[in-house]
């Protein structure tokens, strides 16, 4: 249970070798997994191979010997990647995602694939075909989703860092629910090549960690242009570590009234009150701002994301790979039975929604209109960032809820993402920081900044963490009888 | 009145080195199934397309050559439908903002110019191929089907015409001219039999001016000939329906090559909703003026221009077409013409000597390794009576087959025309004494026997003597007898 800096020191002082460090995490995994189910697979054989390969590499690599957990919708060569779906239950990718390739090249050890809502569709990690992940702070509660496994494993200390993906809040919400840091970078900063697409114009990979420094170190490796992803930014990336520790005095922090009061629970608001005191101590100024189009963010998001998903998930048809229902008698029934049995109900719901929104006669009213409102939201953020450096909001309107509490009411579930969705629609970066606890349940605060200003965002978050630091606060292993 | 109104949708595979969105080769014929594939063109999870710049350039060139406006801003869209040969469940195509728009091709139809307007040209990816095993050759009739993705992802341009075509012949001429232009541009092999050029036809019958009839779409047309046949059949079918006072149903029909007729495939009601939407994985295509100008400068002289130029040289329309229909041949002609002024003579040498050689050996002009300067030199030697035509022919053949320099052969083997009269007279005397029967015949008045004797002399001289000279000398000798 250490930061990257601490692990690095262990190697420098030769207190332990890579194998021993990795084993200490595998030990933690063994302790925690029966309670939280954060991992879908631990590739023990491959881990040994990776450690062996590392022997010939320079110990000066930025992530040398750092164990990292990867969300199971990011492809790992020769390691099963299922998207928590029956339809990809036995899928072994023939290639590494660009982010995975970069992590390996920089010395990281992939120690496991983490649980998620099937195809990253969900806010609680309950929509996994292989059982839900539970919140390490209270295993009767959800860890948030969809990257619930990647958040929970860092929260429980099973891994120092992990990768998730964020389409409408799938990194930030679970980070908030489990008391860790989660960053969604600007759309286009991190290559999506090898990330199983949910909604292509919204998806973005990002890191989980316990300190802003660890987030910055990881981002430095995974960010930057990838010729395999035409939507990845061609610009040179800055040094994300350089600004850490520098003053943010006189920075202006915008508080959008649309995100602070309406629909936010008392518990969350009360816990976040403390942050306003922190802002004062940081020397920043607070300004109330307004982003009126956010009112439409949720419906816009559910039209665009489901439309793209309905198309992105068409390839799972039983023809080339993955699950096929062999009892089918003809082509159409093969499609129907394979997809009917292979996908879970939330995935099917979204495919149907998206198919409907794109249909002839509805396209203009739904999809086209949604893209127009999306543009308005983006413009509103652009305008806001002319006045303020950072925009702050709760990450989630509610505390981590209990398993089963919202799963039967999709609309309630969708509302969980009300704070995070606008960020994806605009394409800007945002980070969720642990801000406090309410009855031993973590509460996160979300900071947003302008396009491709992750350096500024991290500088601000780092300054915040100097006052509000939960990086050493860990959940305790539940009693056995609570399983 | 019953006036056919026809519009064509033509798909041409672009002859780029790699596929449209990945680095797999475009070579897909005669390969074991699913060997020319990668995760990208197989539609694996997590893959993303990266557009092949060459393919975009080729499509723009097609647009420029077909007199289109080139869009400064265009984009890719997804066309969504399920079929086993479509790996992603959608085809990346272009919907409302195609790369090229509003062009035309001028055709010569029975000596008159016919303009067929081009509505649009867009870029898209090809699908894989299905192999149906069992009783039928269609998916629904077979026991099972196999999928080969070697072809999936090969770049295609789709060229859509306005309904400006009014006969099956015009349709064929349009398609032939289009193929010729694509070949001149070097952007597509245009081979219909191999499927690198495919054509769907929309056809309706107009019964009064200004009012269109209900159209049907004909698919599975695999040659110029079947395009004409299918349209003829369909026109007749639709006119019959109208004559009975019934109505044509809007539907897609399949050309059944075996039975030479069109059969219904699906009606309008069964037509799919493709749920087009902008491809989020690809940024818009921006075409700059600079790029357009650069591509424009790379476009060679096109068939129409060439036709005009050759007609001005007073070549006959048939001769012009012989040249224009083969760009390599035509290029060679132009090269030779620069150093040899007599177009007609040059054409006759090419069409008689070269084309017959190509036909006999089933070769194409581009397979030949022939130097225009040597070729012209040879013709000039004949013109100047330095060698005889038979010698030139023989040397040319040897040049084509064995790549021996014709001038070297001529010098080495002494094949120049023999002008030494006493040498010829010696040979003639020999021929006369060795062919007494023929000489007797000649004396009896069978004057045509002289041709035989001339032949004998020519044989002795290995064709090096001028026919006229030999004939004159021979007659002189015979008259002396």
Automatic annotation (TrEMBL), chain A:
UniProt-recorded Gene Ontology molecular function terms: ATP binding; glutaminyl-tRNA synthase (glutamine-hydrolyzing) activity; transferase activity
Cross-referenced InterPro entries: Amidase, Amidase_CS, Amidase_dom, AS_sf, GatA
Gene3D superfamilies found in the cross-reference section: Amidase signature (AS) domain (3.90.1300.10)
Catalytic activity: L-glutamyl-tRNA(Gln) + L-glutamine + ATP + H2O = L-glutaminyl-tRNA(Gln) + L-glutamate + ADP + phosphate + H(+)
Active-site residues from the entry: 71 (charge relay system), 146 (charge relay system), 170 (acyl-ester intermediate)
Any one GO cellular component localisation term in the record: glutamyl-tRNA(Gln) amidotransferase complex
Amidase domain location: 20-458
EC annotation from Swiss-Prot or TrEMBL: 6.3.5.7
Keywords: ATP-binding, Ligase, Nucleotide-binding, Protein biosynthesis, Transferase
PROSITE patterns documented for this protein: AMIDASES
GO terms for biological process, alphabetical: translation
Enzyme superclass (EC): ligase
Family: Belongs to the amidase family. GatA subfamily.
Biological function: Allows the formation of correctly charged Gln-tRNA(Gln) through the transamidation of misacylated Glu-tRNA(Gln) in organisms which lack glutaminyl-tRNA synthetase. The reaction takes place in the presence of glutamine and ATP through an activated gamma-phospho-Glu-tRNA(Gln).
Subunit structure comment from the entry: Heterotrimer of A, B and C subunits.
Protein name per Swiss-Prot or TrEMBL: Glutamyl-tRNA(Gln) amidotransferase subunit A
Organism of this sequence: Dictyoglomus thermophilum
Gene symbol of the encoding locus: gatA
UniProtKB/TrEMBL annotation, chain B:
One term of GO molecular function: glutaminyl-tRNA synthase (glutamine-hydrolyzing) activity
Organism, scientific name: Dictyoglomus thermophilum
Name of protein: Aspartyl/glutamyl-tRNA(Asn/Gln) amidotransferase subunit B
Protein's UniProt keywords contain Nucleotide-binding: yes
Enzyme class per UniProt: ligase
Keywords of this entry: ATP-binding, Ligase, Nucleotide-binding, Protein biosynthesis, Transferase
Asn/Gln amidotransferase domain residues: 331-478
Lineage: Bacteria, Pseudomonadati, Dictyoglomota, Dictyoglomia, Dictyoglomales
UniProt signal peptide: none
InterPro entries named among the record's database cross-references: Asn/Gln-tRNA_amidoTrfase_suB/E, Asn/Gln-tRNA_Trfase_suB/E_cat, Asn/Gln_amidotransferase, Asn/Gln_tRNA_amidoTrase-B-like, GatB, GatB_Yqey_C_2, Gln-tRNA_amidoTrfase_suB_CS, Gln_synth/guanido_kin_cat_dom
